[in-house]
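Support request, please re-run this one:
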Amino acid sequence: MPWASWGLAHVRKQEDVRKVGAGCSRDLSSDFHYIFSNSLANPRLFFLAMPPSAYARAAKVVCGFGAVAFGVYLGYENRHRTTLRASWTTNFKPSVEWDWNWDRREPSSLVKPPKTEDEKDSNEYNVKVEAVKSKANRHLIFIRHGQYDMGPKSDEGRKLTGLGKEQATFTGKRLQELSKELGDFDLVIQSTMTRAMETAQIISGFLPKVPSKSCELLREGAPIPPEPPIGHWRPEPSQFYEDGARIEAAFRKYVHRADAEQTVDSYEVFVCHANVIRYFVCRALQFPPEAWLRISLNHGSITWLTVRPNGRVVLKALGDSGHIPVDKLTTS
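Re-run finished. Output below.
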């Protein structure tokens, strides 16, 4: 039988090895020299010829080489490993990365870096960074004014229509309901254009405890040339230049994370215009600002942006007009 013959040969080889190794005082190097030279003829002899003490030493050598090889492998893998950007992706690179310092209020950008690497300077720097960190959410609720008379050329003549006043009333009631759940709003800020001021006046009737103020920066205008362009609306380049700078200034003034002194969430209402609101949404979400005209907003609709303390922005509602009856919805 093959197994029997192999076992007999195995015993004979062990006997031959004992005879060859008897009475010898070779050290480990000579043992290995003998074993390797003879194992070329018969590889099994390598394991059969090794004395017990050599097994242990050989095992240590093999383990050592194995550990080194494994360490080299790990080093290679770490050097070529790509950091994952999210737990559900593998080596994903976004087309546009989020800019955490979009409002220039990232704590590290508000504090001068330490002059030295001294531990004392580093500790002082860390303390200052912690002191300027935002702690609360800012809820920015943008209301588009009600329908207005587009006939007159002057702003003073472009007053709310009867339907526009109804739309503003429905929006005021909706904000009143929200205030019962959220608490009183902190402020109502309106554009200085007639249609926005009339809308804000109606809404304020439902929020009697909320202070209000006007702001020229929130007036309607042409924020930036839209992409794709639209044929029937062609402002002059100078209008984009002037209005764009003003509307961008309004964005920087009102859309940002909370100051460090603010410890509780705030709720502010802005009564303004479609172009302003659409541009703000694109800028806040870091979408291409040229996309603003792809968004449509109903009169009296609610758009809700929340700015988190870490700079993340959440769009909670875009042009929500569910509080207005369907037969009273208009866009222009």
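The CA atoms of residues 172 and 203 lie 4 Å apart. The longest strand covers residues 313-320.
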